[in-house]
Amino acid sequence: MVGRRLKLAFRNASAFEYLMSRFSTPDEIFGPVSISKLKDEDTYERMVDGYLPSATIAFLDEIWKAGPAIQNALLTIINEKIYRNGQFSIRVPLKGLIAASNELPAQGQGLEALWDRFLLRCLVGGIEDMGEFDRMISSTDETEPVVDEPLQITDEEYIRWEKEMAAIKIHYSIFEVIHALKDRIEQYNLQIQNEGGVSSPLYVSDRRWKKMVKLLKASAFLNGSDTIRLSDCTLLSYCLWSEMDQMEAVEEMVNAAIQKSAEGIC
User: Fold this and answer.
1) In angstroms, rounded to a whole number, what is the distance separating the alpha carbons of residues 227 and 233?
2) How far apart are CA 53 and CA 166, in angstroms?
3) Is the dihedral of CA 8, 144, 74, 63 positive or negative?
4) Dihedral sign, Cα of residue 80, residue 85, residue 90, residue 94
């Protein structure tokens, strides 16, 4: 539902969604191979229209059940927004990819690189508020929302926003938060190693740190600020954990790092 409605934010957008299984093939995600081009031109090329490489918003359910061929192609699509179609590399119009799963990626299965590409990670549970729960089960409205075209984001607006986001300034306090988090992660990993526990260490790649700063810039821009604020840094709680048992520790680290930097400003 989030993916379908996110598509409505963009003018002339297209969406792609697919339920993965261990039997899913690249043809089902990236499009079938063009028989005519293979036969007449001896060229191996996919017909991507209507499939993931042509989508503005994509939703992939049960993402970790996808095979290695699909996962490897997703790496460059998510990170570089590029899909290798035969002998050509095409730039995909993808503005957002949402994936869901009832399980985290299994260790030792070569899924770490793909898991690292997903910047925001949210654990979605059931509705706890009974009033909201009752409203959900009793609702009979199944209509899809409609966004008036003048309100939808055009490609020109999106490009302009990207440039304005890139110009968002980074206050020194934000660097302090990031440095404090890196120190706390190192301490967390040393503690796990010394205790000999079963918990996995926290690993955050340089790629993720760079993407996190870009996320903070986007948050500041959408909140009408020309500088990243400490309040934007609360989003980091959704970016740093890899295992469920790390979530509470990560949230404490982020809150402590923000508080320490705020006290330094005061």
Assistant:
1) 12
2) 25
3) positive
4) negative
* Residue 98 contacts residue 124 (beta carbons within 8 Å): no
Which positions ≥6 away from 233 have C-beta within 8 Å?
Answer: 174, 177, 216, 254, 257, 258
Looking at the structure, do residues 123 and 169 belong to the same domain, yes or no?
A: no
Q: What is the DSSP letter of 92?
A: -
- Start-to-end CA distance of the chain, whole Å, equals 43
Question: Do 31 and 101 lie in a common domain?
Answer: yes
Residue 140 backbone phi and psi in degrees, to 5: -115, 0
Question: What is the per-residue pLDDT across 143-197, written as a single tens digit (0 to 9) for each?
Answer: 888 899 999 999 999 999 999 999 999 999 999 999 999 999 999 999 888 877 6
CA dihedral 190, 192, 194, 197 (to 10 degrees): -170
User: Could you tell me if 119 and 160 lie in one domain?
Assistant: no
User: How many structural domains are present in the chain?
Assistant: 2
**One domain, residues 122 and 232:** no
Alpha helices (H) in the chain, listed in sequence order: 2-7, 26-30, 35-40, 68-80, 112-117, 130-138, 155-166, 172-195, 206-222, 247-265
57-78: per-residue pLDDT in tens?
A: 999 999 999 888 898 889 999 9
Q: Give the model's pLDDT for residue 186.
A: 95
d(CA 31, CA 33): 7
